[in-house]
Structure formats: structure tokens, C-alpha cells
Amino acid sequence: MKFEIKQKDLLGAINIANRAVSKSTNIQIHELIYFSADKDGLSLTSFDGEISIKTYAKANIIEEGVMAVKADLISNIIRKLPDELVKIELENGKINIKCKRSNFNLISFEYFEKEEIRKPDSKPIQIDNDKLKRSINQTEFATSLDETKLALTGILFELKEGSLNMVALDGYRVALKKLALDYPADFENTEYIIPKRSLLEWSRIVSDDSKTSLYKNDNDLMFISESTTMLCKVIDKNYIDYRNIINDISETSIVLEKRELTSALDRAQVLSDPGRANLIKVSIDEKVMTIMSNSEIGDVKEVIEVEQEGEGLDIAFNAKYMQDGVKACDSEKIKLNFKSSLNPCLIYPTNSSHEGEDFTYLVLPVRLAK
């Protein structure tokens, strides 16, 4: 095996492959990056038991072959090389890396024959990467950390009535992103629970100005964008019927500046104890929203002018849970709907700049002792 490649191109491909390299494992094959040089070019493959990634890099293939190398080792070496042509050769179980005046010799690991990542023959769903990344960012924070509720640790992809609904919930809040989307007929009324980590890794790989093609592959999903493919296992569990949770029957509605509320919630948490829930009391009356928080070391009060419809209301929340939803709204102004002090609050952007996209966030109130 022998090839030549620019240092930047090789480092970029290694950084992508590293997304599927296990950082804490005693399984050697999950610590390696597998290089393959053939007529199709240079490919790098990695897998950690949850996701598999294959990416291509432009290279001059002099001699075809395959090799496996420790991911952290090859990454550190290539990162420290100058931005020049890198020459790599495998011979007699040893890897030689040359770049200008640098010369490294490494032991090659046994190349593990793994299942080839092949594109299915079926038609894919296609999503603009900027929309997909935005939707992941607007939902991933609401997934559960409780591994005993495995379904809730992922993000639901629901394809229904010409829309892709992405849902995350953890028992205290729900984040719902709805995208108008054309997709093949065989995807209609299908749903997949995709691990949060898989989607986060994909969002860090792809560029905003390209598209992702999403394929069904038996019990897995395959993501393809430009020269990179990711195969991820779906969570084989039943998801909660989120539609029964989001019931927007409101008695009180307010509209206010997103920036004002975000800043007020920031300040309201300054005096809170890091080891305890950041509880805030919210009072809405006569077009004024008052946010109050107190702890053993002091108290804080924030007052915001709002547009109000309906009666006044007193309610309490975990400040962080409310703030997460407010930050996820992609508009200058947001709308908050309340039914009572014991019912969830629904938060929406009022003037989103992204056509064909809707976002809804639900947060449960906290009951306080009188």
C-alpha cells in the first residue's frame, strides 16, 4: 500500500473518522482507523459498536492496499506535520510516514474484515444540512439522561403527512421541531428513535451548504453527505405519544422579546445553589412579567414589560428548563401560553425566519409549598 496526500486533506478525513472511534474501550478494533486505497480512492473507516463512519479523501494512489492504525496516534502525528505533501507506505507490517523532513515508522495493526458500508438501492429522504443541524440543536438538549428510559435518550424522527417531526422529551419538557419535507412514499407513517450522540456527531461532520441523504438500511439508518457516510443503530423501543402531552388550551398568553427573557433568566440564576434546582417564581399581571428567585444568600427580582392576553397568573419553573426552550426559539420575539399554575407552559417563536419550519417547546411547572 502506498499513497500521497495533502496534510490538510488527510487531517480532515481523520477528524471525521475519529467521530466513530471509542475513547474508552478495551476493544482494540474500536480504537482503530481503517485505511483502504483502491481504484475508488482513499477511504477511512471507523466504528465503535454504535455508529460506523466511512469518509473519502483525495489522494494519489500509487499502490492499492489496506491498513489499520491507532486513531489517536495517527491523528497526533498528522496534526503536527507541516501543511505539505504526506507520503505513506505500508510494507512488511510497518507504516512509514514522510512529510518534508519528518519521518515516522509505526507498527500496523491487523486489518479487521468488517461489513462494507454500502448505499442501499432504495430512494432516500433528502434534507438540507443547515435545516437538519438547526433541528438537532433545537431538540437534543431535551433528551433524557436516564438509561432506564432508553427510548427517551434519543430523538424521535416521525414522518407523517408531508412533515418530519423531530421530538425530544425527558419527563419535564418536550421539544418539537416540525419540518415540511418531501420524502418517498414508503417512508410515510414511519418513525425511528435515533441516539442523540449519533445525530450530534453527524451535525459536527457535515457542512451547512450541502444535503444529507437518509436511507433505511434494515434496522439501521444510513446518513450520506458529500464524501462521508454514517451508519447508526436505531433504538428499538416504543416512544411516548407526545401528541397527548402538547395540548394548547390557554387562558393567558404573553409576547415578549426573547433577548430580554433570556437575560432575565440568566440573572435570576446567579444566586442559586449549584447543587439544587434553579427554581423561579413567575408572576404575570397587567402586562408585566415578574421573575423572582431567592436562596440562602439573597434574592433577585426581574421585571419585563409584555404584551398580555387573558388573566394574571402565578407559576413556578426550573429556570434552566425554561431558558433552554427560550434559547431554542429562532425569533426575536416569543410567545408563552399558560392555562393555569399547575399546567405546562408552551413556548413558540412568533416570527421565525425559516419558512416551512415550526418549533414548539413545553415545560412543566414546579409545585411550590405555600
UniProtKB/TrEMBL annotation:
Would the keyword Cytoplasm be found if you checked this record's keyword annotation?
yes
Domain DNA polymerase III beta sliding clamp C-terminal, which positions?
Answer: 250-367
User: Which keywords does the record carry?
Assistant: Cytoplasm, DNA replication, DNA-binding, DNA-directed DNA polymerase, Nucleotidyltransferase, Transferase
Q: Where is the DNA polymerase III beta sliding clamp N-terminal domain?
A: 1-111
Instruction: Tell me the leader sequence span.
Output: none
Q: Name one GO molecular function term.
A: DNA-directed DNA polymerase activity
**Localization per Swiss-Prot or TrEMBL:** Cytoplasm
Outline the subunit composition: Forms a ring-shaped head-to-tail homodimer around DNA.
What is the similarity comment for this entry?
Answer: Belongs to the beta sliding clamp family.
The name this protein carries in UniProt is Beta sliding clamp
- Origin species: Anaerococcus kampingae
